[in-house]
Amino acid sequence: MWDYSETVKEHFFNPRNAGAVAEANAIGEVGSLSCGDALRLTLKVDPETETIQDAGFQTFGCGSAIASSSALTELIKGMTLEQALGVSNQDIADYLDGLPPEKMHCSVMGREALQAAVANYRGEVWTDDHEEGAMVCKCFAVDEVLIEETIRANALSSVEEVTHYTKAGGGCSACHEGIEEVLARVLTEQGRAFRPTAAPAQAPERQRLAVGMPVMPTRKQASAPADQAASGPATAAAFAQTAAESSAQPTASAATEPTGRATAATSAAASAASSSDDAAEAKPKLSNLARIRRIEQTIEAIRPNLQRDHGDVELIDIDGKDIFVKMTGACSGCQLASVTLGGIQERICEDLGELVRVLPAQAMAKSA
């Protein structure tokens, strides 16, 4: 359960300035209804002084989105447009006496809606300054420029923090490497060290407690000995099956041999463990049953991230290299459903060590 301040609760249960402003002459819209987060900000601006006389909001999202929008309208009323543009997402969070880290993206959305409204008032086309950036997170359409700006503005230092502030990486997780590259570049420019395995590594445990699902091991964890994997959750043992078979068998046989041969086997195992990254990524061919289980486990690991935004994905069928899934909830009508499927496909290809296609269930009839 996230810890909300009393101010957040107050602005959620009794939001200020909810609804559209009559005679508004500035309108800013960000987000998407189909993806679960959208905000429409309306302002009444004095043409002579460019002072914001009134502000209102309409939002579709969680309680933090409502509270952040309410706080934003209270903050900017009475400000000039230039003063309002100086309001940061951290100012919104501070006004609310803090937001849970996982909900900071709501304050970022408020800041962008304000920028869009000011551009609308001035007759400009708001481009959000992101068009030149390469797409990093396909699930939530977050590009490199937005990630970089948010890292700089909020002194972020981990992938987890970037996800909390922008949602990038909160879907299939295939973009985490790209986020790390942006983090490493920005932190190096700032003279700070990027440590991928720092404190935020505890995030998967918090996620498990929140949704009641087992923690999925990373590739490094999957290479642990079979006896260690068996003592954890069943899914962790299944996920580590392939690596365990390749390392446990030589070790088991060595246990019955003389000490010298056992030592040699141990040395060989240690040498294999310290091989290059490319060799570590190599995956032996899976049996049909193990392959199906691996696909199921990968999808199960992705589902909680989609469920947080009121969507979901369900495995329907596997036909050779074609994997058919059904997108439900907010994901079923989302304009980004195709890129979400692409992200899921990338994650499954990585975990299987083979090329596959992830297709919507509707494609089954066409391929039959």
Automatic annotation (TrEMBL):
Pfam families registered for this protein in UniProt: Fer2_BFD (PF04324), NifU (PF01106), NifU_N (PF01592)
The protein's required cofactors: Fe cation; [2Fe-2S] cluster
Cofactor, free-text remark: Binds 1 Fe cation per subunit.
Keywords: 2Fe-2S, Iron, Iron-sulfur, Metal-binding, Nitrogen fixation
UniProt domain NIF system FeS cluster assembly NifU C-terminal: residue ranges: 295-358
Biased composition (Low complexity): 221-249, 262-277
GO molecular function, a single term: 2 iron, 2 sulfur cluster binding
Chain sites annotated for binding [2Fe-2S] cluster: 137, 139, 172, 175
Transmembrane helix is among the record's keywords: no
GO biological process: iron-sulfur cluster assembly
Residues reported to bind Fe cation: 35, 62, 106
Top-level taxon in the UniProt lineage: Bacteria
Limits of the BFD-like [2Fe-2S]-binding domain: 135-184
Domain named NIF system FeS cluster assembly NifU N-terminal: residues: 4-124
Disordered: annotated segments: 218-284
Family stated for the protein in its record: Belongs to the NifU family.
UniProt name for this protein: Nitrogen fixation protein NifU
